[in-house]
Specification:
By secondary structure, this protein is an all-alpha fold. It contains 4 helices and no strands. The N and C termini lie far apart (about 55 Å).
């Protein structure tokens, strides 16, 4: 474990960027999806639960699927999250 930490600290810019893309980007995407699921209203309450389970069980793939399919399951009142304010 100690050797791993020393090697991690000696990473260059490119390696650190790769680590951030591999670990940080999916985590941010998953957290955003969970937040969006909780704040949104769905046409069917079961859809909300199913999307939440999907995102929690398969975080990266579940988040991508949720973000692609969410417009079909949300009510129109909360579907304005992607539109720019005027």
């Amino acid at each position: 474990m100690k050797i791993f930490l020393i090697e991690f600290m000696n990473m260059g810019g490119a390696e650190l960027g790769i680590v951030l893309v591999i670990f940080l980007l999916p985590a941010i995407l998953t957290l955003y999806s969970i937040f969006d699921i909780f704040k949104s209203q769905f046409k069917d309450p079961n859809s909300k639960i199913l999307f939440l389970i999907l995102v929690l069980l398969v975080p990266f793939i579940g988040s991508i699927l949720y973000l692609m399919l969410r417009h079909n399951y949300k009510t129109k009142a909360t579907d304005n999250s992607d539109k720019m304010p005027v």
